[in-house]
Design goal:
Layout lengths: L4 H18 L6 H12 L6 H9 L7 H13 L4 E3 L7 E3 L7 E4 L5 E3 L6 H8 L12 E4 L2 H11 L3 H5 L4
Parallel strand pairs: 3-5
Antiparallel strand pairs: 1-2, 3-4
Length: about 170
């Protein structure tokens, strides 16, 4: 049975309330909204994108409040922060080890559905004196939207086709 968007929000709200009841953070409407936005996102939003989505529900929320709450949620282990190159950090609720693919043009970040390679952790652990926790692997390419934009820009316009060569 597919859950409606409303049912998903109710379930997430209950889960968030329980997490805050057991953790060190006091619950707040703004923090709950920030967490809900990231947890229900189909993408890996930046703080600016979370802010823009949050303002639709709480118009008075500030960008600083969003940044502070994202950092608190990351510090508490409720969200993960992903930084790729020198682009703005992106946030996600999937805290299990997994891989990403990043668009080298626009910075879009997506989860990959290939399994995490625990064997690689074990192989590396045998060769180092570190206590290995995890590894991260990111793939880079050009996303379909950027590919479509590049193809559109590469097409000659009708007026260019009509011009006579000089």
């Amino acid at each position: 049975m597919a859950l409606t968007r409303f049912m998903q929000v109710i379930i997430i709200t209950v889960m968030v309330s329980r997490q805050f009841a057991h953790g060190r953070l006091r619950s707040s409407n703004q923090r709950s909204l920030v967490q809900e936005i990231v947890e229900t996102a189909d993408d890996h939003p930046t703080a600016q994108e979370v802010f823009e989505r949050a303002r639709k529900r709480i118009p008075s929320i500030s960008l600083g409040t969003v940044y502070r709450n994202l950092q608190l949620l990351v510090d508490e282990g409720l969200l993960s922060e992903r930084k790729v190159d020198n682009r703005p950090a992106r946030y996600e609720a999937n805290r299990h080890p997994h891989y990403h693919i990043c668009c080298s043009q626009c910075g879009a970040l997506e989860d990959l559905s290939i399994p995490y390679q625990k064997l690689l952790d074990r192989r590396v652990q045998k060769t180092v004196r570190y206590k290995l926790q995890e590894h991260r692997m990111e793939f880079y390419g050009i996303c379909p939207q950027c590919q479509a934009g590049a193809q559109e820009r590469a097409r000659p316009t009708t007026s260019a086709l009509m011009e006579k060569p000089k």
